[in-house]
Amino acid sequence: MRFIRSVPILSRAFVLFAALTSGTWAINITTVDIPYLIKAGSTDPIILDCNYELGNSSTDGLVIKWFVNQDVLYQWIHGKVPTGSEEFKKYIDESFKASNDPRTMYRAVKLVKPSHELSGNVTCLISSMYGEARAIRKMLVYSPAKSLQLHHPLLNKTANRLTVTCLAEGLYPRPKIIIHRDRKPIQFQEQRYKNNTDGRFTAEAIAVLKADKVKLPVIFQCEVSIFEANYSFIQEYVYNGSQVPCFSLLILTLNLIVFKRY
Ligand SMILES: *[C@@H]1O[C@H](CO)[C@@H](O)[C@H](O)[C@H]1NC(C)=O
Ligand SMILES: *[C@@H]1O[C@H](CO)[C@@H](O)[C@H](O)[C@H]1NC(C)=O
Ligand SMILES: *[C@@H]1O[C@H](CO)[C@@H](O)[C@H](O)[C@H]1NC(C)=O
Ligand SMILES: *[C@@H]1O[C@H](CO)[C@@H](O)[C@H](O)[C@H]1NC(C)=O
Ligand SMILES: *[C@@H]1O[C@H](CO)[C@@H](O)[C@H](O)[C@H]1NC(C)=O
């Protein structure tokens, strides 16, 4: 189905006329409920809601539209069934009713396992023959690391070089990655970030140390974090100088998820 982009010019003129003559607002948004931070794939019920009052004005031409940035997310034409847009249908529960009042029943959007693609400026637009009202909020659907690998350090005795690498995948928005040695960030390290075709990021950190300056055992930690989401994930690796990693004895992996709610 096609989505109506905006109210036609003629009805806009009428709206202005109506507003001027009546001296009141035909539509008022009373509450806006758009969460600022969501974890991608979350199974918690997430509802985007703008409640409104129509006062005495009728529901003629009442249309509720939701956008993510410039893209339509959801639309409900009063008296019809609500529909999620082609692009985002898979993240929407179209059967969700926000109320039993036929004037506002399908005003809200219930998200089902949302993805990072739904991040951005979320807008609700309530319009009718008599007026329109909108609300905009920023929403971030962050994607935590799908994997974080701190590899066994590579020793090159001839070059007196110990190389530590760490790879994190599947993050959104762009994370920060950093390798620590005995809880302090390593001074010389290189970070590489790649934006994948799905929009999520791969981050890699490579640190090179002078092998004879490394006191064993040494604790390496790789931390990947998303500042805006207050998210951080740490892998730890204890290196005692052996060339071949013996998983049962040498590796101490500590997964630390720090996720604080605002
Ligand atoms: C909207 O708010 C304005 C200003 O507070 C008020 O004059 C108007 O009656 C309200 N309209 C509705 C439909 O509630
Ligand atoms: C709505 O209609 C009622 C009755 O017709 C009237 O008393 C009231 O003032 C109207 N309210 C507004 C906001 O126009
Ligand atoms: C969201 O809105 C802000 C402020 O209007 C703007 O600076 C920003 O570029 C917008 N973001 C997107 C993704 O469109
Ligand atoms: C070790 O470093 C030297 C000098 O940079 C290099 O020629 C050699 O190929 C390296 N050895 C390995 C196994 O990477
Ligand atoms: C990442 O790549 C996608 C598609 O390749 C693109 O649409 C998006 O704008 C890029 N994002 C950033 C932050 O570079």
Automatic annotation (TrEMBL):
The chain crosses the membrane at residues 237-259. It comes from the Eukaryota. Residues 1-26 form the signal peptide. The keyword Transmembrane applies. Keywords: Membrane, Signal, Transmembrane, Transmembrane helix. Coiled coil: none annotated. This is Uncharacterized protein LOC105361860. It comes from Ceratosolen solmsi marchali.
